[in-house]
């Protein structure tokens, strides 16, 4: 159930029309005009990058790094092959926006990637697609073929002399491949284990060549920015938080789904758009940016606006825009136990603090939840977390620790009650 | 070892990557092989490795790392149900319990007639459609209430 409000990526997309993802429908919505504008007017690469910088677009995958700045890191004069890679390995629990971009508007991503290739002097790109969404991978392959047949992708695009090839790569089930260097390893046909940085992908990326990796939603925002101008994009959000953003709302709301709304929209407004809390229950907690983001109590959330700065100020992260809403019936120990299990399951095993630490976190939370908690367990969780965060090659360890720290900070009484009384403080019901 | 159709599909995967980077196609090739064979036996993995031109251990490493590859036989229909937190908040565990009860098996087990294998999955990136099931790795089923599960199981007979 996808519900869209105003926006950039889904503007004019009729998701009830089964053909909305095809090339002809995209062209009718003004698709590929941005690419044609660049090619016909031979707009210099610097100007394209400046437009993206001016839009205030920040990486939509979770880190929020300015996209235009990232593009400017690519050594455009490097004589060999350079790659543009899209990260559609959307596996952060709570996030399901990129799936809908591929489902309803795949050409916006294709056009965005071609423009990125032009701006960074790359002739080849790959889109790495999450294993579990095979049907979207097949659709994306079809969309690529439509673009090739129409002369919008491949050799001599629109007769301009510019060449860009784009291929889809299908993952097969590994959360870690959402980490950009693990993704590159996987694209090279290896185990998806993150690389030590530096060197960064801009200098040593896919096959050792300069590479820029962006999230699906970031690339899909580019056609709008080029066609209508970076300023128009920026104005849809607020300073330092340009544009609209897709929020994937899941959990205890009446209408879960994707909502494309201006950055800076109050959380309370978003909650209203989702039809409010299911069964009229009380809002207890929200994870505002995917399972790796710190949880926030409901009353704090009701005062934040949905943008990078406001959520950071409240002590969490906008992350991927995955908003997980929990009501008063949720035992926070149980909720955390499920998340801890996930990180333990998905640790790639390369770094000892993460491989062992995620297991420790899960086992300790599991025993608290099952009435076997010890008085020293909360200190033990803190100590394990401190020995993980910042001590590994990638951020998965940190991602596993953030929920533990925030759950035990904001809902400490529930953990203490569990340890002391061997049962939940609340009468837990998942839904 | 693999059908002509599968070989052609693997060739299409190989064509996506530079000529000196054939290894990149191993993930797609293993997926194609598994789709044909139902699961990945060591001989199948070796065949894929030889066809691509990489060492068998390099292909085996990939097959064991990514969790959608099945290294032992599974039922005709492998059903994976997501129970991660966002799904749990919208019926993921109910769907899992109902499937266990209906099929008479636990996670990681196969029905005695070999028709169904039930697995617990991690986030499939479809949390807004919870509860979600993945059938045979490639077909996503959304909003799987008990009625929807009954209907789906009847279709899969």
Give a verbal description of the structure:
The complex is a heterodimer of chains A (431) and B (157). Helix content of chain A is 42%, strand content 13%. Chain A has helices at 23-28, 33-41, 45-54, 67-72, 97-104, 106-120, 134-149, 180-187, 216-228, 230-236, 267-273, 298-301, 308-313, 332-346, 352-369, 377-386, 396-410, 412-421, and strands at residues 83-88, 124-129, 165-170, 211-215, 244-251, 257-262, 265-266, 283-287, 296-297, 305-306, 322-327. In chain A, the strands form 3 sheets. Chain A has a 5-stranded mixed β-sheet. Chain A has a 4-stranded parallel β-sheet with strand order 3-2-1-4, with helices on both faces. In chain A, strands 7-10 form a two-stranded antiparallel ribbon. In chain A, a hairpin with an 8-residue loop joins strand 8 (283-287) and strand 9 (296-297). Chain A is globular and about 75 Å long. Chain B is elongated. In chain B, helix 1 runs antiparallel to helix 2 (26-37), helix 2 crosses helix 3 (42-52) and helix 3 (42-52) packs across helix 4 (56-65). Chain B has 2 domains: 4-65, NADH-quinone oxidoreductase subunit E (Arc Repressor Mutant, subunit A, Orthogonal Bundle), CATH 1.10.10.1590; 77-156, 3-Layer(aba) Sandwich (Glutaredoxin). The two termini of chain B are 28 Å apart. By secondary structure, chain B is of the alpha+beta class. A 5-stranded mixed β-sheet of chain B has the order 2-3-1-4-5, with helices on one face. At the A-B interface, strand 3, strand 5, strand 11 and helix 14 of A face helix 2, helix 4, helix 5 and helix 6 of B.
Considering the chains and any ligands shown, give keywords for the structure.
A: 431 residues; alpha/beta; 11 strands; globular; B: 157 residues; alpha+beta; Arc Repressor Mutant, subunit A; Glutaredoxin; 5-stranded mixed sheet; 5 strands; elongated
Helix-strand layout with pairing:
The complex is a heterodimer of chains A (431) and B (157).
Chain A: H1 23-28, H2 33-41, H3 45-54, H4 67-72, E1 83-88, H5 97-104, H6 106-120, E2 124-129, H7 134-149, E3 165-170, H8 180-187, E4 211-215, H9 216-228, H10 230-236, E5 244-251, E6 257-262, E7 265-266, H11 267-273, E8 283-287, E9 296-297, H12 298-301, E10 305-306, H13 308-313, E11 322-327, H14 332-346, H15 352-369, H16 377-386, H17 396-410, H18 412-421
Parallel strand pairs in A: 1-2, 1-4, 2-3, 5-11
Antiparallel strand pairs in A: 5-6, 7-10, 8-9, 8-11
Helix pairs in contact in A: 2-9, 3-6, 5-6, 6-9, 9-10, 14-15, 14-17, 15-16, 15-17, 16-17, 17-18
Chain B: H1 4-14, H2 26-37, H3 42-52, H4 56-65, E1 77-82, H5 85-88, H6 92-103, E2 109-110, E3 116-121, E4 133-135, E5 139-141, H7 146-155
Parallel strand pairs in B: 1-3
Antiparallel strand pairs in B: 1-4, 2-3, 4-5
Helix pairs in contact in B: 1-2, 2-3, 3-4
């Amino acid at each position: 159930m996808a519900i869209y409000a105003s926006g950039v990526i889904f503007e004019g997309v009729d998701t009830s029309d089964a053909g909305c993802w095809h090339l002809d429908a995209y062209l009718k919505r003004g698709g590929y005009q941005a690419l044609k504008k660049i090619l016909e007017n031979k707009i210099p690469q610097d100007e394209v990058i400046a437009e993206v910088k001016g839009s205030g677009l920040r990486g939509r995958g979770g880190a929020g790094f300015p996209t235009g700045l990232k593009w400017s890191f690519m050594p455009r004069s490097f004589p060999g092959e350079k790659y543009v890679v899209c990260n559609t390995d959307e596996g952060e629990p709570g996030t399901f926006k990129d799936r809908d971009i591929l489902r309803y508007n795949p050409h916006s991503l294709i056009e965005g990637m071609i423009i990125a290739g032009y701006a960074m002097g790359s002739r080849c790109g790959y889109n790495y697609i999450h294993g579990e969404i095979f049907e979207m991978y097949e659709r994306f392959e079809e969309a690529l073929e439509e673009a090739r047949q129409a002369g919008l992708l491949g050799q001599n695009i629109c007769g301009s002399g510019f060449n860009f090839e784009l291929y889809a790569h299908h993952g097969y089930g590994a959360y870690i491949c959402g980490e950009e260097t693990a993704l590159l390893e996987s694209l090279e046909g290896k185990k998806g284990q993150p690389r030590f940085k530096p060197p960064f992908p801009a200098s040593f990326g896919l096959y050792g060549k300069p590479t820029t990796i962006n999230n699906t939603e970031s690339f899909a925002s580019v056609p709008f920015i080029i066609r209508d101008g970076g300023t128009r994009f920026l104005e849809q959000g607020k300073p330092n938080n340009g544009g609209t953003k897709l929020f994937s709302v899941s959990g205890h709301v009446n209408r879960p789904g994707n909502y494309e709304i201006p950055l800076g929209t109050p959380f309370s407004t978003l909650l209203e758009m989702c039809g409010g809390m299911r069964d009229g229950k009380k809002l207890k907690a929200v994870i505002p940016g995917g399972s790796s983001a710190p949880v926030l109590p409901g009353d704090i959330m009701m005062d934040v606006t949905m943008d990078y700065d406001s959520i950071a100020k409240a002590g969490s992260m906008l992350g991927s825009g995955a908003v997980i809403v929990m009501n008063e019936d949720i035992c926070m120990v149980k909720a955390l136990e499920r998340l801890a299990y996930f990180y333990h399951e998905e640790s790639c095993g390369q770094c000892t603090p993460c491989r062992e630490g995620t297991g420790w976190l899960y086992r300790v939370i599991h025993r608290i939840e099952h009435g076997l908690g010890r008085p020293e367990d909360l200190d033990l969780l803190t100590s394990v977390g401190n020995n993980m965060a910042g001590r590994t090659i990638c951020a998965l360890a940190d991602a596993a620790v953030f929920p533990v720290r925030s759950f035990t900070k904001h809902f400490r009484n529930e953990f203490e009650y569990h340890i002391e009384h061997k049962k939940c403080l609340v009468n837990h019901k998942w839904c | 070892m693999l059908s002509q159709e599968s070989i052609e599909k693997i060739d299409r995967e190989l064509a996506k990557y530079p000529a000196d980077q054939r290894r990149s196609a191993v993930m797609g090739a293993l997926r194609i092989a598994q789709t044909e064979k139902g699961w990945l036996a060591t001989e199948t993995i070796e065949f894929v490795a030889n066809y691509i031109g990489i060492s068998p251990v390099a292909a085996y490493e990939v097959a064991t790392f990514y969790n959608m590859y099945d290294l032992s036989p599974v039922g005709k229909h492998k059903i994976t149900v997501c129970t991660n937190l966002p799904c749990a908040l919208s019926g993921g565990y109910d769907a899992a319990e109902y499937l266990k009860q209906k099929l008479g098996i636990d996670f990681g087990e196969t029905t005695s007639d070999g028709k169904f294998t039930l697995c617990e999955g991690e986030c499939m990136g479809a949390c807004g459609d919870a509860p979600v099931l993945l059938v045979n790795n490639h077909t996503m089923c959304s909003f799987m209430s008990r009625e929807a599960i009954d209907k789906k199981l009847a279709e899969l007979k």
